[in-house]
Amino acid sequence: MAALFHLHPPLSPPPPSSCFLSPATTLTHLSSSRTKTTHHYKTPALNSEPPPPAVETFWKWLSDEKVVSNKSPAKPGLVQEGLGLVAQRDITRNEIVLEVPKRFWINPDTVSASDIGSLCGGLKPWVSVALFLIREMMRDDSPWRFYLDVLPECTDSTIYWSEEELLEIQGTQLLSTTTGVKEYVKSEFLKVEKEIILPNEELFPFPVTSDDFLWAFGMLRSRAFSRLSGQNLVLIPLADLINHSPSITTEDYAWEIKGAGLFSRDLFFSLRIPIPVKAGEQVKSTTDAVFLTEKINSNSPHDEHDMMEKYGEPVLIQYDLNKSNGELALDYGFIESRSDRKGYTLTLDMSESDANFGDKLDIAESNGMGGTAYFDIVLGRPLPSVMLPYLRLVALGGTDAFLLESIFRNSIWGHLELPVSRANEELICQVVRNACKSALSGYRTTIEEDVELMKGGNLDPRLEIAVGIRAGEKEVLQYIDGIFEERESELDEYEYYQERRLRDLGLVGEQGEIIFWEPK
Question: What stretch or stretches form a coiled coil here (predicted)?
């Protein structure tokens, strides 16, 4: 049983994420004038700087193309998260904020219609779009230039942390996942470099590196919309500027694809907001920006209200209610303080050296599982319903192994939903608790030290993420350990299989006493 439990997340290839850039010899358009987008959830506010010229040029391009106008409900602005959408007027709940026609989308269809379309037919969709973004970024005459120039150079996603920064999440599952993602992206790059980039120098007359590929991967992971009818990977210029709010808890999707009209085949991406937003005057000059900074930094209780009245509220949505803090940190570069964002993945393996491995595997597969099972544990929530039965199955042996016989095959899972024997239940408690203690020992800090750091405040944004992640994982590990510690203390109170069987046969009374058969 010692090797049955692996406290690491699955490292399966992830869907497309955000950004180390290449040296100045490549992606030269990614200059310091570009906006860096980060996500840290404090008071929503406009930034202390006016939008850079590239943002104004981007807005003019959209205006010239009739996508937006001066009457549009929202436009780009610098907010505390970075670049976002800010209300130009009062916006009501569920009002459409913007509509972007299909000709402005970037998706696999866009790639197919481009100069490199014929080369990308056999590629994964995200790989083809990533390659397209890199090529367009390097072209001075790209029709997407105005959009590309407002893309961020990086986010605070852990894939882009330095080695020194990654040391702050040593021992965490997030570090394992981050490493796996970077290795996955690099392997995909090496394949596309060999098969497409190097053999087609006329289409790629510039060096492309794995860091460039990671940048494009990051833009897709952090900005692409999914769960759309017929569109599982699409970048929507302007719409992808909308930021996340932890206070929005509705799961209603804020976006949809719809037709332009009864007699039109045109499609539009339509974005609604789930909450009302107040209007306000936008930052239009450096003077206004300085005023805003002073308002934010002062101690007046009316500052936040006055600021929103003058500058307008950011337009926000909920990205995904089901993602853990680890996923949020990996995808977007932020975390939340809510307990239901704190999670840990227990990975349970059946040992192939187990004499009963074949029978156990067959039982697991008959119940929709396999030789390896992943269980996502969320702080404060009950354990997944199939976790204890699976644990009991993996630990089954000795005098309990008779339950693996074929005669019990159709009923064994029902038996595993309840304690099998004291020895079996005690074993799973001990192994899980030992695994939790082992995982806790792998961190560089204690949870008490993390709490003190968070209390002190003024942490660097990435250190704030690191401390929050490792403290959250430790909380969940302690929570799991506490559950099994309690189970261990109650072992003498459980009713086990043999007792249940005797009760079913009428051989045990209500108080657990043995009923002896006496002849008449």
Answer: none
The rounded percent of the chain whose pLDDT value lies above 90 is 58
The average confidence (pLDDT) of the chain is: 81
- Give the tens place of pLDDT for each residue, 351-403: 999 999 999 999 999 999 999 999 999 999 999 999 999 999 999 999 999 99
pLDDT at residue 23 greater than cutoff 80: no
The DSSP 8-state label assigned to residue 303 in this structure reads H
The dihedral built from the CA positions of residue 37, 38, 44 and 47, taken in this order, carries a sign that is negative
End-to-end CA distance of the chain: 50
Question: CA-based Rg of the chain, rounded to a whole angstrom?
Answer: 28
Assess whether 319 carries a catalytic annotation.
yes
User: Count of H helices and E strands in the chain?
Assistant: 17, 10
Per DSSP, the three-state class of 330 is: helix
Sequence ranges of the binding site for substrate? 223, 227, 240, 255, 319, 332
Beta-ladder partners of 317: 244
Please say whether the beta carbons of 254 and 228 come within 8 A: no
Could you say which of 160, 319, 344, 443 is catalytic? 319
User: DSSP H helical segments within 336-417, as ranges?
Assistant: 357-366, 387-395, 412-416
Token pair listed for 148:
């590309």
